[in-house]
Design a protein that fits this description.
Helix 5 runs antiparallel to helix 6. The longest helix is centred in the N-terminal third of the chain and has 18 residues, at 2-19. This protein has helices at residues 2-19, 25-32, 34-46, 49-63, 65-78, 82-94, 98-108, 117-129, 133-140, 153-164, 168-176, 185-197, 201-215, 220-225, 227-238. By secondary structure, the chain is mainly alpha-helical.
């Protein structure tokens, strides 16, 4: 198997070299140094520089998460643009620094960007995860008429916030919009849980069982992506038996 993989890699590199009219010295390197020559060719001629830099940047962020925030803070201090403000807010949100994220998102909502869908949807997310459900509901009023809202994460969090504020009729209506076959498994799991809390046991069971049934007909990739959610659905519906 290893031998055939090397042959395939060589074939790709030689084809790429020929079609892109790169130096023919690479072909000799690929043929006489199969693995090393092919890998060197890939890194120097196929992978773009910015792709490599992006990988390096991600590694640094994993090792030192605060570096990304520090760099973005300096960038914003140097140039207070909408893009820099939102990028910093996104970094704060990613690190679960919700109050800082909210502050920067809200500061960016002015002038031509005062109704920016992306920023408002992110404010909703930050307010939800900081348990300020009133603000989630208030900010939703500003974007619920947008065509992008219906299937967005902000829409789902709005439904969850309505539940938290004990407005079950509206919460169910909102969460039901995510009940579509072979998709939205996380949202549908929450819908099933919501229905169980509302004493609608049969409705909840239907959602659970539909998810489980769909998993039996999904591709391996689909099953892998939703494995934990399907497992939860099986466990939770079994508890209702």
């Amino acid at each position: 198997m290893y031998y055939y993989l090397i042959i395939a890699l060589q074939g790709f590199c030689i084809y790429h070299c020929y079609t892109n009219r790169n130096s023919y010295y690479w072909i000799f390197a690929i043929i006489f140094l199969p693995l090393i020559g092919s890998l060197l060719y890939l890194f120097m001629n196929v992978f773009r520089k910015r792709d490599i830099e992006k990988v390096q940047e991600n590694l640094v962020t994993v090792i030192n998460p605060s570096k990304k925030i520090n760099d973005l803070e300096k960038k914003l201090k140097f140039s207070e643009t909408f893009e820099n403000q939102v990028a910093l807010a996104d970094a704060y949100l990613e690190e679960e620094m919700y109050s800082d994220a909210i502050s920067h998102y809200e500061s960016s909502l002015k002038d031509v960007f005062k109704n920016d869908f992306y920023v408002i949807s992110k404010v909703i997310e930050a307010y939800y995860y900081s348990s300020n459900f009133e603000e989630v509901i208030e900010y939703t009023k500003r974007i619920e008429g947008n065509s992008k809202f219906k299937k967005s994460k902000a829409s789902f969090l709005y439904g969850m916030a309505l539940d938290k504020k004990d407005i079950p009729e509206l919460a169910e209506e909102q969460l039901r919009t995510f009940d579509a076959p072979y998709s939205n498994f996380m949202e549908r799991l929450e819908l099933a849980r919501f229905l169980i809390r509302q004493k609608k046991l049969e409705d909840g069971k239907i959602i659970y069982n539909e998810m489980i049934s769909e998993s039996e007909n999904m591709s391996k990739h689909g099953n892998k992506m939703n494995r934990n959610l399907i497992k939860k659905a099986k466990e939770e519906v079994a508890e209702l038996a």
